Every structure is written in C-alpha cells, then in structure tokens.
Amino acid sequence: MTASPEHVQSREDLARFVRSLHRRHAEHESTWENPDLPSFLGALSAWIDDADGWYRNAGREMPTDGDWRFFAQALEAATVYE
C-alpha cells in the first residue's frame, strides 16, 4: 500500500510517507515531473507558496496546525545526516 498525505498523523507516519516517496522515485523516476533534487526542491517551495490556492481548489481548508519548524529542520538535517 502506498502511503498518502491524508494518513500522516504522527512523526512515524511522516517517515513512512517519505520512505514511500523514496521507493516510488526509485521505481518510477521517469514518471516524476521533478525527478532531480534541484527541480524537486524548486517545486516544493513553489507548492508551499501556493498551498492555500491548492487547498481552496480542492475544496479543503488549509491546515493551520502544521509544525513548519519541524519540517524545515528535517529538510535541513537531511543535507548532512547519513
């Protein structure tokens, strides 16, 4: 089963979701619109900027309780973590 963002309720779920993305990339890299790190990070920052519009267009409410600092720290840590 592929993890989905809707199922992420904990740090462990988030780790499982990221592992699923990693696996999906390894298995289907050619189908990804942003298969390399620079384009992926560029798309990630663009989506974060436009997230309120995405949620609005999907008929959903933008979450206000995200731990943005944790996510930022995880991204930063991954630049040096082995």
TrEMBL record:
Lineage, highest ranks first: Bacteria, Bacillati, Actinomycetota, Actinomycetes, Kitasatosporales
Domain DUF7660: 10-82
Superkingdom assignment: Bacteria
Pfam families assigned to the protein according to its UniProt record, in alphabetical order: DUF7660 (PF24693)
Name used for this protein in its record: DUF7660 domain-containing protein
